[in-house]
Amino acid sequence: METIVVVLNSRIMENPDLDIRYALPELLEAYTQGELCDDGCDYITNEELGIWLSAKSAKDSYQKVLAFLEEHLIYGNHLIETAKVYISDKASADLSDCTLIYDGCETLPDEATRVANRAKKSRTIVLKIAGLLTQDNPSIKETLAANLQPLIDITAQWQCCVSLLTERNYLCYCNANFYLKDFLELLTETEGVEANGLCVDETAFDEEDDLYNWYETLDEQWQDMGFCMAIFDAKDDDNDGNLIFPYKADLLEELSNLAMEIDVRIVALEEY
Questions:
Q1: 252, 232, 38, 248: CA torsion to nearest 10
Q2: Among 272, 253, 230, 247, CA closest to 23
Q3: Whether residue 224 sits in one domain with residue 164
Q4: Residue 54 sits in a domain of what CATH number?
Q5: Residue-number span of the structural domain to which 260 is assigned
């Protein structure tokens, strides 16, 4: 096996989240269908983190790394503009034994261009997420695209999407203070419940239980239909609750990976 090293500089990243050291290798392995594999990470300087990948041929595979970084954000970072990529024909090679083959920092755009590039990429991702959540409802897509156009901040873009999907009953906003009657009323009006014919057996719920017990009851009721309850933080300082929606369990990973690109965590309830 040979070596590819992706070097990230926290000083110039938009969001230097350390979880990137786990997420990037996992996403690249999926993107290349196992052609690239995680081979560890290490600090090179106080600001630089190296992520090692193993490949049968570093020369053949590094272009796929660049293609992934060009197409995707990771935790809100457009890494194609800031990452460096090194390769070596040795296995688990030290950085000193590798050759620099791509230097994003060398042609780093000015701040205004970087903001515009990232905003354009994140708008595309938000629209994809909305498409998955609404089964590509054309009305939602058209309205959301128009609303997103002037927004350059990722959080503002996401909150715009959340607001529209909540308004159109694709998401159900809940907090720990809800009574069972209110929770069930909101849930049964959610588009995903109606469109997918999901049964909500109200007799199975205990009014004395908390919100998370009610979520688990729904998972049990929908298990045979292949659906689960998914959840994410509203990321809204004015609200302390979560947004929930039913989703096909076997498709949730795709949605979660897309959300990760804009630093949103969407997971099945059991993982929350």
A1: -10
A2: 253
A3: yes
A4: 3.30.70
A5: 121-271
Which of 198, 196, 269 is CA-nearest to residue 232? Answer: 269
* Angle subtended at Cα 40 by Cα 37 and Cα 43, rounded to the nearest 5 degrees: 140
d(C-alpha 186, C-alpha 232), whole Å:
17
Q: How far is CA 219 from CA 93, 180, 201, 208, 236, in A?
A: 46, 16, 12, 18, 26
Cβ–Cβ < 8 Å for 143, 220: no
* 166 falls within a domain: yes
Q: Find the Cα–Cα–Cα–Cα dihedral 261, 163, 137, 141, rounded to 10°.
A: -70
Give residue-wise pLDDT tens across range 54-108: 999 999 999 999 999 999 999 999 999 999 999 999 999 999 999 999 999 888 8
d(CA 45, CA 61): 26
Could you tell me if residue 113 is inside a domain?
no
